[in-house]
Design brief:
Helix content: 25-40%
Number of strands: 15
Distance between the termini: 103 Å
Mean pLDDT: 88
Length: about 525
């Protein structure tokens, strides 16, 4: 009997210890720790709001939210999605921001784009099979994420080329992805190739078949190395014998090529992430533009799994079409290329104290000190002038920036001899133009501004004799000064920006007045000369 009692006692003790161990293990699970951190931050934030509340009713509502947070967390967070899909990603990533209206989380969830195990709340199991690590839009994996075809046959961003839904193919051909001009010019200058036309890019890529109407090439090969000994190695010590698309590198025996790889081609293009230093942090692929970073690259959102104290993160978990100039500046306006030394000289004027005003900030941040530029180039954002085809590409492979550029000063401002190109919208435009019309609320019967090659600028609207531009990123409105019938001294045959800079550079002071002084006042950009 005594032995029986001892056995029962041991079993009870074993059972109790098992329960204690299971409870301790459950409490130590990462998702519980993350939710406790999220809970503490939100409660602290709500208490500040309660202290500032203007009425007792608001304070009571906030108190109820605090009680709910304490009662409901921590716990497994399971999301029900269309198609009987379930995910538990928010068990750890609770509080993460919605990626955007175009990818509603209640429809897409997380794993449709990111991959991973949707039902695991343990690491590393939950992250097994992630697409591209933190960035599923990286070009190396983009076909499996942004370019995937859904079960119903819908092609996400690898769609119909006629309707220009082939975003991935187009953006892979843009000069921001190929770096074709920056490769061709030094190779030509140092005698590595006999013509200026591009032959090589960051990686192998095929473009649209040249149609004879533009200066393009059918394909680019990956930039060669000088010799096999120059091939880089992975972190594991293996030689990288092929470009990111899997095409093997060739060897040219010309010293300029390895120098190009080491000083230029390893950065500042869409295949690469930004440099890990202030002003130059950014992601790769689509996220290089559409996922915003601050200059210091700190996370400002509510996902408790992302550190707020270490640089190297996007500002919040969100994709956007409202891209400010500061995002472009993570690559552009950061310094100058020295062709003779085959090197990139970083700007040294960016950290000389805090600017006294937003205008001073733009003047410092936007352009190199020796550069000429006009008011629209520092008052507006880059996307207010540069169009989809210029930035995302049109499927052709251009040898340099000038070939891909379509918008000039006279697109919006006209010339002495003609006004900008205005057309009445009929509702029978191309599928792409009609999509843009819907996005900007433009309707058939309205008049819209077009570029010479037929690309609509939907954010510019005529009002009487004036053109009003609404900033795509800021929503601010500006009246565009028109050259037609003004006193502008331009040569209508010379239409590049440098000719406009001769008179309208921001450092030169007031521009020539038009014939109608009243029109001049109406056409002014705010805070300009």
């Amino acid at each position: 009997m005594k032995r029986y009692g001892e056995t029962v006692a041991l079993l009870v003790l074993f059972f109790a210890l098992s329960l204690f161990w299971a409870a301790a293990k459950e409490r130590s699970k990462p998702y519980r720790q993350y939710q406790k951190l999220y809970q503490a931050r939100k409660i602290a934030q709500l208490r500040v709001e309660a202290a500032q509340a203007s009425s007792s009713e608001i304070q009571e509502a906030i108190a109820a939210r605090i009680v709910a947070l304490k009662r409901t967390l921590p716990a497994i967070q399971e999301t029900q999605l269309p198609g009987n899909r379930r995910e538990r990603c928010l068990s750890c990533h609770i509080g993460i921001e919605s990626i955007g209206d175009a990818h509603p989380p209640e429809t897409f969830g997380c794993t449709l784009c990111h991959g991973g195990d949707p039902l695991s709340v343990r690491l590393p199991q939950a992250h097994s099979g992630l697409i591209g690590g933190r960035n599923p839009s990286d070009f190396r994996v983009i076909d499996a994420s942004c370019g995937r075809t859904m079960a119903d046959g819908t092609a996400c961003h690898n769609g119909d080329a006629v309707q220009e839904r082939d975003h991935i193919q187009r953006v892979r051909t843009t000069i921001m992805a190929t770096k074709a001009g920056e490769i061709a010019l030094p190779r030509y200058a140092f005698g590595a190739q006999k013509e200026r036309a591009a032959r090589f890019g960051v990686s192998a890529v095929h473009g649209k078949t040249p149609d004879g109407t533009r200066s393009v090439v059918p394909a680019l090969r990956p930039l060669p190395y000088t010799e096999a000994a120059d091939l880089p190695r992975t972190e594991g010590g293996e030689l990288l014998r092929a470009d990111p698309t899997g095409v093997p590198y060739e060897f040219s025996a010309h010293p300029v090529d390895t120098q190009l790889h080491r000083n230029c081609v390893n950065q500042c293009h869409l295949w690469a992430v930004g440099q890990e230093e202030p002003y130059r942090y950014r992601a790769s692929g689509c996220a290089a533009c559409h996922y915003l970073y601050e200059d210091q690259a700190y996370y400002r959102g509510d996902d408790p799994t992302i550190s707020r104290d270490e640089p190297g993160h996007g500002t919040v978990h969100k994709l956007t079409l409202k891209i400010p100039y500061s995002q472009c500046n993570h690559c552009h306006n950061r310094g100058n290329h020295d062709l003779q030394r085959m090197a990139f000289d970083k700007r040294t004027d960016l950290d000389h104290g805090t600017p006294s005003s937003e205008k001073a900030r733009r003047l410092m941040d936007y352009y190199n000190p020796m550069t000429l530029f006009t008011r629209c180039e520092w008052t507006l954002d880059c996307i207010d002038c540069h169009t989809d085809r210029e930035v995302m590409g049109d499927g052709y492979l251009y040898s340099d920036q000038k070939g891909q550029q379509r918008i000039r000063c006279d697109t919006c401002h006209g010339t002495l001899e003609r006004r900008p190109i205005l057309r009445e919208l009929s509702g029978t435009e191309s599928a792409k133009v009609q999509r843009i019309m819907r996005r900007y609320g433009r309707r058939a019967g309205e008049t819209a501004l077009f570029s010479e090659d037929g690309e609509i600028l939907p954010h510019v609207r005529p009002e009487g004799q004036r053109l009003i531009l609404t900033g795509k990123a800021t929503g601010k409105t500006y009246v565009l000064p028109l050259v037609y019938q003004s006193r502008c001294r331009q040569d209508p045959k010379v239409r590049d920006a440098n000719s406009c800079h001769q008179c309208h550079d921001i450092h030169l002071g007031p521009r020539p007045l038009p014939r109608d002084a009243g029109q001049e006042k109406a056409n002014e950009f705010p805070d300009g000369n």
